[in-house]
């Protein structure tokens, strides 16, 4: 990863894009999908994301469900059967995208096969791709996506730095070798030796740190890995959050995440694989509000008084005063000089400057020293 150019650490000045992950929480129902669009828009999300797939191209009949899927949907059907019940048709995807445009929220979908990706570009009009963690090593799909030369948001759950670098090599090859077919996987690492490849990756690719478990326990999240990704590759880094609650997503923004992705649902008690690990509408709204507060609070890093603080200086700070009556000609000393509020007089930093000076006039108790 030493070939990756470094990027200036100005991430704290950016506004995170918030992706409300609808995923398959529509349960194959268009009306519910449209309700999810409305909910995400009202919550203030920048983007709502769905999933585009054909079950028969994604899993074989022998594919088992993940343990969390068995826990949420039972073991009575295979993964393939479950996926078939969660598909959206191409016409439904177009209708959802139109609803997003009307609601002024971005539409995004994760394609799980080449045909779905092509449909999203040619018939839905997506302007970017989101790649799920499960396809981090799916070189044929990554190459197909990169051929469209669109931005890619790449989740890295279950991945190592070496696997992420390989994926970036595939994407860079697709960006720059539009017609060429790789002869071996070595072609992907070779393209990363070109400076322009990293320039293009910095422009178009965002890496999402992720823990692929639903829900993911806090101890497994490892938010500091975002810094490792940023250091290794010099790309924008975000967080795809599978934990319970909103606090870790908010913490990720404070650590510089430029994208936050979080599952949400209309009702956590609905049947389906992902509802239990998703936010409900009021929680999504609260998360987005908290993230925007954190971004506002991050500031620009300069340690100067906030304008709102200036009026409190005289109230909270202190000035030099006499602690007993002092007559003209008497010398100031530790016995007759002290510091008290308000702070609109001589700064206590000058305490030692005034020691042994001659009082120019009479001072009453608690009267402020004149500069």
Would you give an account of this structure?
- Its EC number is 2.5.1.56.
- Keywords: Transferase.
- It is an enzyme of class 2 (transferase).
- By secondary structure, the chain is of the alpha/beta class.
- It has two domains: 11-298, Alpha-Beta Barrel (TIM Barrel), CATH 3.20.20; 307-354, no CATH class.
- Helix content is 39%, strand content 14%.
- The protein is built from 16 helices and ten strands.
- It has helices at 30-43, 55-58, 67-73, 79-84, 90-103, 114-124, 139-146, 161-176, 186-191, 195-204, 225-233, 247-254, 281-298, 307-310, 313-316, 351-354; strands at residues 17-23, 47-52, 106-111, 129-131, 152-155, 205-210, 236-241, 259-263, 319-322, 337-340.
- It has an eight-stranded parallel β-sheet with strand order 3-2-1-8-7-6-5-4. Strands 9-10 form a two-stranded antiparallel sheet.
- Helix 5 (90-103) crosses helix 6, helix 8 packs across helix 10 and helix 12 (247-254) runs parallel beside helix 13 (281-298).
- It starts with 16 loop residues before the first strand and ends in a 17-residue tail after the last helix.
- Mean pLDDT is 93; it is low at 1-12.
